[in-house]
Amino acid sequence: MSTTLLILAGLVLLVLGGELFVRGAVRIAERLGVSPLMIGLTLVGFGTSTPELVTSVQASLAGSPGIAIGNIVGSNIANILLILGISALVFPIAVPSAALRRDGMLGALVAAALLGVGLFWTLDRMAGVVFLLGLAGYIAYAWRQESAATGDHTAAFEKAQAMEEVHPGGLAVHAPIVTDNFWRGVPASIGFVVVGLALVVGGGGLLVEGATGLARSLGVSESVIGLTIVAVGTSMPELVTSLVAAFRRHADVALGNVLGSNIYNVLGIGGATALIAPTAVPPEIAGFDMFVMLGVSLLLLVLARSGWRIGRREGALLVALYAGYLAWSWPA
Fold it and tell me: In the predicted model, what is the mean pLDDT of the chain?
């Protein structure tokens, strides 16, 4: 099978498997009486990040740090420049000031933390534990904030809500808790989890194999492939959920989806990858692309603060900047 087909097959399996896994896990959690809010902040919130998680872990286990770290960094860059830019082109995004100060600043801080690890440390188990504890703290804060019902939603909540936009009535963060007849539907849900897990693991393996083969055949580094092709491919769920929200004129949810995804990517995926398969950060990524990730996170704060709105002109700028980043990253 050609490298292109391996990559495409891997992406399809990752997305399909992640969908099945999350659906099954959500249904089981509902039967266990877990609150819809907690399901949304954890299982559904992580759902669109499943492709990035499996790909980075498998790449790290396979000894391909350029793909493992490049996937995380490249996904965050693509989320802001490409996905948010396209969403703003579809429908201008109103920016809640409280959300920007809280989640936007946190997104920049975690980007700076990953840059610090890349420059002065390594993605070892200690860093993984710190990142995962940070994510647990953020989810706990989001839980308290949403439970207070102030109407000031966190990015973690809006990331789950964006996925609900794609599955109306299917993966709801407001759905009633179902506890009657516990075993009804549980065998099928367990089957979804098992099949979904098998698909994401298999898809991740195909994607990593195809990406490394493509790097060899094109004579480019694995980091370039991880930062671009793999990162954009594994970010497809975020692109779909953000676009659906934008088309339905819920563009503020698209912003929360991007900010939440970037926080989950660094703290959750970076933390899990470091804990399961510690890996060194490639110098070329630490020396350039992580600075780009931090730079675009700060740029988002500036653009969003200007008029508390990201309009079509700003969206076009973000997409143009992503095109420039791709042109710079790929060797002539």
Answer: 86
Supply the pLDDT for residue 33: 72
Token pair of 294, please?
Answer: 């931090």
Q: Are 53 and 231 in contact (CB under 8 A)?
A: no
Please tell me which of 1-5, 139-143, 255-259, 273-277 the model is most confident about, judged by mean pLDDT.
273-277
Domains and CATH numbers, the chain: 3-329 (1.20.1420.30)
CA 255, CA 240: separation in Å to the nearest integer? Answer: 13
Residue 175, classed as helix, strand or coil, is coil
Listed in sequence order, the DSSP H helices in 121-185 are 125-147, 155-166
pTM reported for the whole predicted model:
0.90
168 class by beta-carbon count within 10 Å (0-12 exposed, 13-18 middle, 19+ buried):
exposed
pLDDT of 332 strictly over 90: no
Biggest distance spanned by C-alpha atoms of the chain: 62
| Backbone phi and psi for residue 10, each to the nearest 5 degrees, phi listed first | -60, -45
pLDDT band at 150 (very low <50, low <70, confident <90, very high): low
**Of residues 316, 281, 258, the one with CA closest to residue 113:** 281
User: Whose CA is closest to 29, among 265, 192, 263, 260?
Assistant: 192
* Structure letter (DSSP) for residue 92: -
C-alpha span between 186 and 26 (Å, rounded): 11
The answer to whether the beta carbons of residues 245 and 87 sit under 8 Å apart is yes
**Block residue for tokens 């808790």:** 177
Q: Could you give the percent of the chain with pLDDT greater than 70?
A: 88
SS3 93: strand
